[in-house]
Structure to design on (911 residues):
């Protein structure tokens, strides 16, 4: 597995789906149509918290052009006293999130849906639905939700024996933190808060669903998992999974936000009731009000170290907003926060807080950037307090092979230290800085995932290759899979066609998420290809009349070896395929696995900023990410993950936030006011890929998609501190907040 | 309300279509005209995924009324390649991995093409400002900017 022996692995091939995507031909969910298709629209709650006393849909149903109306009464009810899990999602909450049942829990919560001959008619009919609400007080921010007299979202949620908005807790413990802090020369404790931020995919949620008169259901939708769509739609509609064919459309970004359903079960029920195919497409405003985002948070991080830089104790308490239903990523926050370091005494706690805003969805290493933000900022303060270079402090304490992490694992060979050493040796770390410019560093960790994947590798009659896998391709995974298949089979990359199957054409495959797609699909594709090679050798042996053991597969052809060496001319893929029917029939193999061995990902970042103290604008001047990528199968798309993650983090750190008005409504539900980074905000972004192959993977693949976001918030925060000598403990560090902080003029050093 | 009959030219082809007075050009493209390469990311002119040119001017088609197409010349992503030959920008985007999910790609290509037609030798800053009306959430813009700068260099060389 080195560059010199590989022909395709490690090269920047052109993605198989590329030509369609640069010509506008690629079919995303909103691009699909069916004969006789009608349109669905959702009626959403105008209140952030209200009991739904009754819903009268009769006027809407009578409106000309309306074909069906759906309310929670049509969705399968999962009683609140029994958990029904699908992956990390609980159907108790999912059935109430897609359609409010007893209560509307956030402004924008779906209450009913209408299907009609046009989108405009459906929208008009929604206005005719009469909902009798009993409006309740609401709690949106964490501190409001935790007050003793806070409005309780769910009576059945108990904490310490009382109804509460704390829906869950988690604790990781190692050693004895009290003893550790007592021993430390320096102890620093700080509070932090972050705002909810949206995944910000450019493609709004969309689907087209056809339920035929016999119940056979076809779903085209934008999701990170067609099997997730099938299963959740089945749970929420009562249709058996075998009746549902979920087809993954090309997906216009997800970042975790498309790992749950919003529209598909609703459109399915509307189609079933109307007898017609139903299309639903969210507006951007609906996306911002009612999908995602990731949690806002408040946290406290305390770290104790010796004068020589050894960290002896660390404690983190992380409160994360779950939104309307339990399930914030406290595991990511509390679990990943201290994971890059070898610390003998750790206590890390997470609290899952429900509040009257949309239910959070996964967002790129869910929770981990929140945990890293507090930890990496406090580490910077420790470094300053003991007079140590911040990278040296991290290097001194870096986790390595054999380190026991508080969240459980003992690490195998990992490349964290290499990322830190590469950062310290890099030109960027030594480059001069000007006035009001600053440099920050930070490291981060993400778990990465394995899990279920399926693949089928078939040889076509003309001797080419079709590979089918089951994960929606968001960032170029088809190109990487083609690289691997071409490498193994020893043929030209362009002879391999990689397709994403639907739920009827490929075996079960878990979500595109957890940085798992290439890790897991490379495993099943590798095993399938190896079986195909075994078949090809057996066919050649049959043609030659020799023992299959005497055949080797090299450079895309079968060659006799051993005593038969040189006795027969080699047989290539085309020649063997041409004789397939005479030698045993079609050539192909499929493998289905629950993959393990993903191993975590580590990254270290350097960020330079310049702060305009008149306007309060912090501008990123230079950004370099150093990441242990395991093995870069398609280096340009690995770089793309690293660069994209950096910019999402810069947006989170500097500008993005949900702003609520006094009525409990999101006040900035569009791209103009929810300001994500644009091209002119950014410099070029350097991605330094460090390849420490994952020993548990046939090609050495390690998940690369999520950890690029983890260190960014703190790298930016540390850079701003370096520029101003003033630290901000609250995100985003947007112009008003920067200016406010400068007005206070409190020197951080005094603390 | 009665539909309006519009006569226009799209990607060089004389075209007629019917629309409501309130339809946007994006509605018309994606609906009756079947040109779904222009994407709707926001409907408010903030993301640029629906970028087209109207008489050579780069615009967001979600901010243009379909009726305004009457008598005009429209270019969309579907008209960017010449037959089976991709435009140099399209080819460079592929070679440079300048797209990940691809939903913003048609808009970026239209905006980049409009830039290079006006300014064949843009600086990095000029490219960044010319593309600042297009949102991409996947790439961090790095590879897009490189692809546009490299294409400009190739096209200048080819023109000599």
């Amino acid at each position: 597995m080195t560059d010199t022996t590989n022909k395709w692995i490690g090269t920047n091939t052109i993605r198989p789906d590329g030509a369609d995507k640069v010509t506008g031909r690629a079919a995303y969910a909103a691009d699909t149509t069916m004969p006789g298709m009608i349109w669905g629209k959702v009626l959403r709650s105008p209140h952030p918290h209200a009991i739904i006393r009754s819903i009268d849909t009769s006027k809407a149903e009578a409106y000309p052009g309306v074909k069906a109306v759906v309310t929670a009464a049509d969705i399968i009810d999962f009683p609140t006293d029994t958990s029904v899990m699908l992956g990390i999602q609980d159907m108790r909450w999912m059935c109430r999130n897609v359609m409010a049942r007893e209560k509307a829990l956030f402004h924008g919560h779906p209450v009913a849906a209408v299907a009609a001959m046009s989108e405009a008619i459906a929208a008009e009919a929604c206005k005719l639905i009469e909902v009798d609400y009993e409006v309740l007080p609401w709690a949106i921010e964490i501190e409001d939700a935790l007050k003793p007299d806070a409005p309780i979202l769910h009576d059945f949620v108990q904490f310490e024996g009382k109804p509460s908005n704390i829906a869950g807790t988690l604790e990781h413990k190692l050693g004895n933190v009290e003893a550790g802090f007592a021993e430390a020369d320096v102890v620093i404790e700080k509070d932090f808060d972050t705002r909810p931020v949206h995944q910000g995919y450019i493609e709004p949620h969309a689907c087209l669903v056809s339920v035929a008169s016999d119940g056979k259901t076809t779903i085209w939708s934008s999701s990170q998992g067609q099997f997730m769509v099938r299963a959740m739609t089945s749970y929420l509609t009562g249709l058996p999974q075998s009746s549902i064919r979920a087809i993954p459309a090309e997906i216009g970004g997800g970042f975790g936000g498309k790992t749950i359903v919003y529209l598909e079960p609703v459109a399915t029920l509307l189609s079933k009731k109307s007898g017609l195919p139903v299309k639903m497409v969210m507006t951007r405003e609906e996306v911002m009000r009612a999908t995602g985002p990731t949690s806002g948070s408040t946290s406290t991080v305390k770290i104790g170290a010796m004068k020589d830089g050894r960290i002896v104790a660390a404690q983190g308490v992380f409160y994360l907003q779950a939104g309307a239903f339990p399930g914030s990523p406290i595991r990511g926050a509390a679990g990943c926060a201290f994971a890059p370091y070898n610390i003998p005494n750790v206590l890390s706690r997470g609290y899952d807080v429900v509040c009257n805003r949309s239910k959070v969805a996964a967002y790129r290493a869910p929770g981990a950037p929140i945990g890293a933000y507090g930890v990496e900022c406090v580490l910077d303060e420790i470094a300053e307090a003991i007079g140590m270079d911040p990278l040296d402090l991290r290097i001194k304490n870096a986790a390595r092979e054999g380190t026991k992490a508080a969240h459980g694992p003992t690490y195998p060979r990992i490349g964290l230290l290499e990322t830190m050493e590469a950062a310290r040796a890099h030109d960027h770390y030594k480059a001069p800085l000007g006035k009001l410019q600053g440099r920050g560093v930070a490291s981060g960790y993400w778990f990465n995932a394995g899990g279920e994947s399926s693949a089928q590798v078939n040889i076509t009659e003309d001797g080419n290759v079709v590979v089918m896998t089951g994960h929606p391709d968001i960032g170029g995974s088809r190109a990487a899979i083609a690289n691997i298949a071409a490498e193994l089979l020893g043929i030209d990359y362009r002879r391999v066609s990689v397709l994403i199957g639907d739920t009827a054409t490929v075996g079960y495959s878990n979500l595109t998420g957890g940085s798992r797609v290439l890790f897991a699909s490379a495993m099943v594709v590798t095993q399938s290809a190896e079986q195909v090679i075994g078949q090809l050798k057996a066919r050649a042996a049959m043609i030659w009349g020799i023992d299959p053991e005497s055949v080797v597969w090299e450079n895309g052809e079968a060659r006799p070896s051993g005593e038969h060496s040189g006795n027969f001319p080699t047989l290539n893929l085309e020649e063997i395929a041409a004789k397939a029917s005479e030698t045993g029939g079609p050539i192909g193999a499929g493998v289905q696995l629950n993959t393990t061995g993903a191993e975590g990902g580590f990254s270290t970042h350097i960020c330079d900023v310049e702060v305009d103290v008149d306007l309060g604008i912090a501008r990123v001047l230079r950004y370099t990410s150093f990441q242990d990528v395991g093995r870069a199968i398609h280096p340009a798309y690995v770089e793309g993950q690293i660069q994209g993650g950096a910019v999402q983090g810069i947006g989170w750190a500097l500008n993005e936030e949900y702003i609520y008005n006094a009525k409990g409504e999101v006040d900035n539900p569009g791209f103009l006011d929810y300001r994500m980074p644009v091209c002119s905000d950014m410099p070029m972004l350097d991605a330094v890929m460090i390849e420490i192959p994952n020993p548990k993977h046939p090609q050495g693949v390690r998940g690369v998609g999520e950890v690029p976001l983890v260190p960014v918030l703190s790298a930016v925060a540390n850079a701003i501190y370096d520029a101003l000598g003033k630290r901000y403990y609250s995100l985003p560090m947007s112009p008003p907040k920067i200016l406010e902080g400068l007005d206070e003029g409190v020197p951080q050093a005094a603390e | 309300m009665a539909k309006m009959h519009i006569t226009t030219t799209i990607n060089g082809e004389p075209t007629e279509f019917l629309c409501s007075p309130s339809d946007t050009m994006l509605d018309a493209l994606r609906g009756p005209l079947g040109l779904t390469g222009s994407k709707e990311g926001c409907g408010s002119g903030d993301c640029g995924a629906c970028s087209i040119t109207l008489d050579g001017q780069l615009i967001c088609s979600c901010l243009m009324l379909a009726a305004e197409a009457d008598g005009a010349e429209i270019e969309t992503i579907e008209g960017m390649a010449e037959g089976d030959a991709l435009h140099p920008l399209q080819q460079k985007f592929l070679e440079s991995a300048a797209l990940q999910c691809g939903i913003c790609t048609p808009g970026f290509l239209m905006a980049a093409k409009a830039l290079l037609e006006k300014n064949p030798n843009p600086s990095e800053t000029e490219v960044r400002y010319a593309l600042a009306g297009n949102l991409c959430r996947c790439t961090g813009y790095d590879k897009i900017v490189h692809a546009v700068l490299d294409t400009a260099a190739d096209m200048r060389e080819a023109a000599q």
Residues 446 and 707 of chain A are 5 Å apart (CA to CA). Residues 746-751 of chain A have pLDDT under 50 and may be disordered.
